[in-house]
TrEMBL record:
<feature type="domain" description="BON">
    <location>
        <begin position="71"/>
        <end position="139"/>
    </location>
</feature>
<dbReference type="InterPro" id="IPR001041">
    <property type="entry name" value="2Fe-2S_ferredoxin-type"/>
</dbReference>
<dbReference type="InterPro" id="IPR006058">
    <property type="entry name" value="2Fe2S_fd_BS"/>
</dbReference>
<keyword id="KW-0249">Electron transport</keyword>
<dbReference type="GO" id="GO:0051537">
    <property type="term" value="F:2 iron, 2 sulfur cluster binding"/>
</dbReference>
<dbReference type="Pfam" id="PF00111">
    <property type="entry name" value="Fer2"/>
</dbReference>
<protein>
    <submittedName>
        <fullName>Putative periplasmic or secreted lipoprotein</fullName>
    </submittedName>
</protein>
<dbReference type="InterPro" id="IPR014004">
    <property type="entry name" value="Transpt-assoc_nodulatn_dom_bac"/>
</dbReference>
<keyword id="KW-0449">Lipoprotein</keyword>
<dbReference type="GO" id="GO:0046872">
    <property type="term" value="F:metal ion binding"/>
</dbReference>
<keyword id="KW-0411">Iron-sulfur</keyword>
<keyword id="KW-0408">Iron</keyword>
<dbReference type="Pfam" id="PF04972">
    <property type="entry name" value="BON"/>
</dbReference>
<dbReference type="InterPro" id="IPR036010">
    <property type="entry name" value="2Fe-2S_ferredoxin-like_sf"/>
</dbReference>
<comment type="similarity">
    <text>Belongs to the 2Fe2S plant-type ferredoxin family.</text>
</comment>
<dbReference type="InterPro" id="IPR012675">
    <property type="entry name" value="Beta-grasp_dom_sf"/>
</dbReference>
<keyword id="KW-0813">Transport</keyword>
């Protein structure tokens, strides 16, 4: 069974915004015309250059999971490494957990500045969309 691709043709100047299904080993232009799209002459000749191509995965079937435990572990390790480099955060008192692009910080820190810094570090990690900061400020740990 040959693969096919959903291709969105978009050109604001020409008023084109349509998605076509293109079989593997087929030309996008020919398939679009076969499916009834009216394209400007310059598109048919390939000389316009106003359309751009963006390639990438937009959907996956067969219930394949993109996110893996390796990604989860990498996010947690990267955040822990960044916390270790911070001058005001005591990384040994913080637990970092990640799941589905969400990070949860637990534990305690010595100041509100350290709490904010830990959250900033977690938010700056690529792939993190939200952070739940459950860090408590433990003033008594300053005296230890």
């Amino acid at each position: 069974m040959a693969n096919s691709y959903q291709v969105r043709l978009f050109n604001k100047a020409e008023g084109i915004d349509q998605t076509v299904e293109v079989p593997e080993d087929s030309y996008i232009l020919e398939t679009a015309e076969e499916q009834g799209m009216e394209l400007p002459y310059s598109c048919r000749q390939g000389i316009c250059s106003t359309c751009t191509v963006m390639m990438g995965v937009t959907g996956i079937s067969d219930r394949i999971s993109i996110k893996s435990k390796a990604v989860k572990m990498a996010i947690e390790q990267d955040i822990n490494s960044a916390l270790k480099r911070s001058a005001i955060v005591d990384v040994d008192r913080i637990q970092v957990e990640s799941e589905n692009n969400k990070v949860v910080l637990r534990g305690d820190v010595r100041s509100f500045a350290a709490r904010d810094e830990a959250e900033r570090i977690a938010r700056s990690e690529p792939g993190v969309y939200s952070v739940d900061n459950h860090l408590g400020v433990n003033w008594s740990s300053i005296v230890e």
